[in-house]
């Protein structure tokens, strides 16, 4: 009986060790999420566990969110709104960088907000399809109450209050991964990370649909943007990098 219990214990331990190994692969060498970091005077990074949400001031008491976080109760985001003297109805739009679960869990908390994503990721965000990455393709789609009210197209510009938001398609991490350029700040979601040394690196293999496509998309993005357009680059799981140079250097190598 003792031997059976030991074997059972080892079998239970394998998924735990696998999860630890995956966590190390995903986050080792990354820069820390800069909780509370102000971005060009109009946006703020808030840390929601292993992911971040970016809160953008759209003027006249309105805000726009880049993603909605990993917490279905939205405690961190709601606390940030309260700090500003605002409630959930102040959120006028949520711009999803992609449809993975840790980026869309808080959408249902803001019923008056438009929820936007590139068309290819709408089924993933709404729990009707799964991502095709080596890890996530094995998990069943899960409905987390996110409903996309406005599918987006590459190259369009959204006007939300006093914010002009440029939508840029960067497929690879998922087929509908998006970048958003707002007032000199480039929001890249999970399509890239910042290392502790301040370099930009491509999306992590285990949760990325197509790593080569991801790299090609980042290089194409560097060619599309003008250096003077980018003052800061923001990532969902890592630090903030200054200027266009990190993306330029990635593309060059």
UniProtKB/TrEMBL annotation:
Superkingdom of origin: Bacteria
Alphabetized UniProt keyword annotations: Membrane, Transmembrane, Transmembrane helix
Location of the Metallo-beta-lactamase domain: 50-237
InterPro entries, alphabetized: Metallo-B-lactamas (IPR001279), NDM-1-like (IPR050855), RibonucZ/Hydroxyglut_hydro (IPR036866)
Listed name of the protein: Metallo-beta-lactamase domain-containing protein
Transmembrane regions: 7-29
Pfam family, one: Lactamase_B
SMART domains the UniProt entry points to: Lactamase_B
């Amino acid at each position: 009986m003792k031997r059976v219990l030991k074997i059972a214990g080892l079998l239970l331990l394998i998924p735990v060790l696998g999860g630890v190994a995956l966590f190390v692969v995903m986050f080792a060498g990354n820069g820390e999420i800069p909780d509370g970091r102000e971005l060009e005077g109009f946006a703020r990074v808030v840390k929601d566990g292993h992911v971040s949400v970016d809160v953008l001031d759209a003027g006249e008491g309105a805000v726009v969110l880049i993603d909605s976080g990993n917490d279905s109760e939205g405690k961190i985001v709601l606390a940030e709104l309260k700090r500003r003297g605002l409630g959930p109805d102040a959120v006028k739009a949520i711009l999803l960088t992609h449809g993975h679960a840790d980026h869309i869990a808080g959408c249902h908390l803001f019923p008056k907000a438009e929820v936007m994503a590139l068309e290819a990721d709408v089924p993933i965000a709404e729990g009707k399809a799964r991502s095709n990455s080596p890890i996530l393709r094995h998990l069943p789609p899960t409905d987390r109450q996110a409903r996309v009210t406005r599918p987006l197209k590459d190259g369009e510009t959204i006007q939300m209050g006093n914010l002009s938001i440029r939508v840029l398609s960067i497929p690879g991490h998922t087929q509908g991964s998006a970048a958003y350029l707002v007032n000199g700040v480039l929001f890249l979601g999970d399509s890239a990370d910042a290392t502790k040394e301040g370099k930009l690196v491509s999306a992590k293999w285990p949760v990325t649909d197509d790593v080569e496509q991801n790299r090609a998309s980042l290089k194409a993005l560097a060619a599309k943007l003008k250096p003077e357009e980018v003052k800061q680059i923001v990532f969902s799981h890592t630090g903030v990098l200054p200027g266009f140079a990190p993306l330029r250097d990635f593309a060059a190598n």
